[in-house]
């Protein structure tokens, strides 16, 4: 039997023992010291203890039915976390685990995942705040009640990342919080764009893999292939980069002299008749630029990042520039290249 430990990646179907009880995972995540199985029912389902009884019908993510045998183990059809009448958990293989309650008993808490909402959700006002600005009691409620699971699932799924070995537990939570708030904003922007069309000269639209949306702004070209302007969340920052069908995962960012491949990112859609490229050198000087730049993202310290395009080895690459960077930085060749003379995307 595997014993639960902090700092461990747990995936669907994993089973652990903690303080004499067995727990089966509900939501893939990386464990933290204060996310023990008994304190995070949104992440773990208890499998042992209690009285016998039948596992009843399980309704959750995937329309599962569990017919229980004995105390806990049952056969399931489909997927799901059953939570109505002494039921169990159905996993991807259709196996069920009764929750050791009789048919007449009702569980005290219900947690639904997939497309359903966690028990504790952040409010719109909270989503606008930094994690560190939230009340300590509220942060604990969100952490154990599912309020961070959207970000944790995105990280576990490989869509986003941060340099985990460099972070404290509180910093990891802060970045997970920032990530899921950005994802929600990106999804809302994309939904509004699809429903109502463009509301200005340019709009960020969320996409995945190598699917470049129609109307994407060309930010450069290499060997005859167009390079589009993208951005994504990484290590607490929202970083402009480049995207193309020929990229390994679709999007590419430059960060701390590394080239980061990203499968989920935003692409800038717009009308170049309302935009223009403005020549710049060294650090962006907003007073002398002569136009208002399109903001492409921000560093993890809050510094705005602008969209740049810069020449390099016979090609032109999209990248980033700011009032702190000594030139434009473009992702290239596994790292980043600094270019002194470049152009910044501005409103016309």
Write structural notes for this entry:
- GO terms for molecular function: carbohydrate binding; hydrolase activity, hydrolyzing O-glycosyl compounds.
- It comes from Pterulicium gracile.
- Keywords: Hydrolase.
- Residues 98-116 have a biased composition (Low complexity).
- This protein is α+β, with helices and mostly antiparallel strands and 348 residues long.
- It has 3 domains: 9-98, no CATH class; 124-196, no CATH class; 202-347, no CATH class.
- The protein is built from 4 helices and 24 strands.
- It has helices at 124-127, 136-145, 149-156, 169-196; strands at 9-10, 15-18, 21-25, 29-30, 44-46, 65-68, 73-77, 80-81, 88-90, 95-98, 202-208, 218-222, 225-234, 237-243, 251-255, 258-262, 264-270, 275-281, 295-298, 304-312, 315-321, 328-332, 335-339, 341-347.
- The strands form 6 sheets. Strands 11, 12, 13, 14, 15, 16 and 17 form a 7-stranded antiparallel β-sheet that branches. A 5-stranded antiparallel β-sheet has the order 6-7-10-9-8, with no helix packed on it. Strands 18, 19, 20, 21 and 24 form a 5-stranded antiparallel β-sheet that branches.
- Helix 3 packs across helix 4 (169-196).
- The longest helix has 28 residues, at 169-196.
- The N and C termini lie far apart (64 Å).
- Residues 50-116 have low confidence and may be disordered.
Distance between the termini: 64 Å
Order of helices and strands: EEEEEEEEEEHHHHEEEEEEEEEEEEEE
- The gyration radius over C-alpha positions equals 24 Å
What is the helix content?
A: 10-25%
Shape: elongated
Residue share in β-strands: 35-45%
Q: What are the low-pLDDT stretches, counting only 5+ consecutive residues below 50?
A: 50-116
Mean pLDDT, to the nearest integer, reads 78
* Helix count, DSSP H or I runs of 4 or more residues: 4
By helix and strand content, what is the structural category?
Answer: alpha+beta
- Give the oligomeric state: single chain
The largest sheet, given as strand count, sense and whether it forms a barrel, is: 7 strands, antiparallel
Domain Chitin-binding type-3: 4-44
Biased composition (Low complexity): 98-116
Biased composition (Basic and acidic residues): 118-138
InterPro entries: CBM5/12, CBM_sf_5/12, DM9_repeat
């Amino acid at each position: 039997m595997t014993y639960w430990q902090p700092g461990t990646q747990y995936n669907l179907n994993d089973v652990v023992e903690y303080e004499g009880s067995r727990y089966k995972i509900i939501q893939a995540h990386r464990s933290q010291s204060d996310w023990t199985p008994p304190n995070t029912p949104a992440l773990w389902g208890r499998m042992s203890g209690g009285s016998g009884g039948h596992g009843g019908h399980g309704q959750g993510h995937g329309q599962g039915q569990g017919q229980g045998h004995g105390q806990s183990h049952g056969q399931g059809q489909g997927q799901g976390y059953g939570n109505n009448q002494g039921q169990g958990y159905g996993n991807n293989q259709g196996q069920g685990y009764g929750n050791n309650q009789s048919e007449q008993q009702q569980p005290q808490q219900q947690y639904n995942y997939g497309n359903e909402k966690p028990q504790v959700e952040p409010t719109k006002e909270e989503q606008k705040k930094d994690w560190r600005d939230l009340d300590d009691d509220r942060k604990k409620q969100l952490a154990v009640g599912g309020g961070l699971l959207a970000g944790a699932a995105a990280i576990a799924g490989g869509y986003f990342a941060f340099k985990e070995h460099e972070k404290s537990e509180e910093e990891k939570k802060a970045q997970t919080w920032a990530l899921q708030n950005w994802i929600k904003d990106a999804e809302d922007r994309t939904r509004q764009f699809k429903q109502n069309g463009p509301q200005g000269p340019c709009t960020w639209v969320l996409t995945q893999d190598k699917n470049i949306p129609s109307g994407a702004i060309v930010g450069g070209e290499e060997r005859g292939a167009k390079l589009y302007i993208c951005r994504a969340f990484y290590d607490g920052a929202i970083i402009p980069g480049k995207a193309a069908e020929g990229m390994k995962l679709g999007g590419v960012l430059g960060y701390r002299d590394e080239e980061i491949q990203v499968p989920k990112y935003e692409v800038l859609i717009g009308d170049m008749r309302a935009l223009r490229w403005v020549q710049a050198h060294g650090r962006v000087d907003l007073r002398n630029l002569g136009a208002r730049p399109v903001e492409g993202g921000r560093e993890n310290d809050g510094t705005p990042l602008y969209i740049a395009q810069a020449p390099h080895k016979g090609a032109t690459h999209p990248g980033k520039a700011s009032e702190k960077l000594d030139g434009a930085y473009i992702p290239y060749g596994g790292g980043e290249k600094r270019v002194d003379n470049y152009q910044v995307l501005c409103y016309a």
